[in-house]
Amino acid sequence: MEIIFATGNPNKIREVNQILGKTHITIKGLKDIGCTEDIPETQPTIQGNAIQKANYVTDNYQVNCFSEDTGLEVDALSGEPGVNTARYAGQGKDPEANMAKILQKLGANTHRTARFRTVIALNLEGQQHLFEGVCEGTIAYEKTGESGFGYDPIFLPQGYAGKSFAELSKVEKNKISHRGIAVRKLMEFLDRV
Ligand code: IMP
């Protein structure tokens, strides 16, 4: 089965392919269908954006596809950055500036619980299906680790002794991450159809 992953983010395509391992499903990117434009993400929720991206691709390219949208929710910041996770510190989507803004806003606050939430919207043969993955953790006081991307250096997943996502191996991160959980739900579903 061939399916388009509606993202232009090569980090995400790589992670999803790693999570997939060997299956009968081949994931292709937007470039493979000639889609190079920016897909609108203008909805007020993570789920809304996932649906908007999947529908854009299906409507314009008539393909089966899935999209995902991810947000980081920091409790002491009333759930921010949430739907604004990518552009928290501005339109440049600069991960360093985004992390700096969170660390600055939290300051010495000891209430640092947070979670990553991923929603996947799958458009398959005219039907839509949603899958969610959540990873609970806390925000570090400073960045640690070199691997991963985005907010990984300041996110300490629950149960990993204070290690950040950026200090875990890719295999370890995929086992527990929001995207790993959501993608495995997607794959279990696709295995049954
Ligand atoms: P989007 O889903 O592409 O809109 O990404 C939202 C934001 O979340 C971007 O700033 C990403 O860098 C960040 N992000 C998404 N997934 C992860 C992750 O697994 N670790 C760290 N940051 C992430």
Structural summary, described in words:
With 193 residues, the protein is an alpha/beta fold. The chain has one domain (2-192): Maf protein. The protein contains five helices and seven strands, in the order βαβαββαβββαα. Bound molecules: inosinic acid.
As a whole number of angstroms, the C-alpha radius of gyration is 17 Å
**How big a fraction of the residues is strand?**
15-25%
Q: Return the CATH class.
A: Alpha Beta
Extended strand count: 7
The CATH topology? Maf protein
Brief write-up:
The protein is α/β, with parallel strands linked by helices and 193 residues long. The protein is built from 5 helices and 7 strands; from the N terminus they run βαβαββαβββαα.
Question: What is the secondary structure topology, with strand pairs?
Answer:
Elements: E1 2-5, H1 10-20, E2 26-28, H2 46-61, E3 65-74, E4 80-81, H3 95-106, E5 113-124, E6 127-139, E7 155-157, H4 170-176, H5 178-192
Inosinic acid binds next to strand 3 and helix 3.
